[in-house]
Amino acid sequence: MSRPPSLARLHETDPRSRPGTLHARSLAGGIQVVPEPGRTVRFGRGGKPDTQLRVGADDTRVSRRHGELTYQDRSWWLRNTGQQLLRLPRGQLMHTSTEPVPLTAGYTPVFVRGSGYREHLVELYVTDYDNNGPDPKETALTVPPKRWPLHDDERLALIILGQEYLRYAAEPRPLVYRRAVAQLRVLEPEFGWSKRKIEDRVAAVRRRLHESGSVRAKLMRAEDDDACDATLMDNLLRELVDSTTLVPPDLDELDRAFDDLES
User: Would the keyword Phosphoprotein turn up in this protein's UniProt record (predicted)?
Assistant: First the structure.
């Protein structure tokens, strides 16, 4: 995971920092803890002595002791001790009944569920190397996201279907086929767009991405599962948007095309 400079450089500026040192920060402040077997660090709404790191101080949905990190077996282990869930990267959720999770070296954001839609961020960084000069990754070329090649007709159909996704709507849904066909016929009347033609192009893209083995989300329905088409379409559009294969400027081109037709 990428490191926020403010946390990633703490070990470079503090001589006490060494491999395994935990750096933790919330809006209320930050702490640095040297690794010693059995050492425990707690975070939550309560201040000292309940916790060493305060988070969500004004939110009564956050427990006074909401989580703790314990150093053992050469790792910091995260455990949920609060009433609300903790959310980790990749959507991983932790309940009080969940087994402790070891932190990997580097940066880990942890979100504490609060009132309503509120989530309180706890930033964790575990040092894992000695500072022997600049990290070569700091000057390395940026690795771009994997963008998927699409044929022109596939791209146009998916832009039409994924308009809400390209607007980054909170709960996007694919455009229904009836409306998608109507818009495509306006843009390309000579192509003879139909629901079947859209489905064929969507199916072809789903199959290519599935066969690549690089997409974690389900894109194809197996014979023995009950994944619905809406779920598979949602997974496909999210992958195309997350990988920046489809981007918001695609909508600008679409709007200009409709404007030209009306003028």
Answer: yes
In the chain, where the domains are located: 5-138, 152-262
Enter the tokens of residue 49.
């002595």
Print the SS3 string covering 188-246: CHHHCCCHHHHHHHHHHHHHHHHHHCCCCCCCCCCCCCCCCHHHHHHHHHHHHHHCCCC
| pLDDT digits 0-9 by tens, 130-189 | 545 455 666 677 677 789 999 999 999 999 999 999 988 878 999 999 999 999 999 999
5-138 topology per CATH: Tumour Suppressor Smad4 (2.60.200)
With contact defined as beta carbons under 8 Å apart, do 247 and 233 qualify? no
89: region left, alpha or beta (phi > 0 left; psi from -120 to 50 alpha): beta
Distances (CA, A) of 155 to 17, 29, 122, 162, 233: 50, 47, 39, 10, 14
Q: Is the peptide bond before 49 cis (omega within 30 degrees of 0)?
A: yes
pTM of the model: 0.57
The tokens of 34 are what? 């040297």
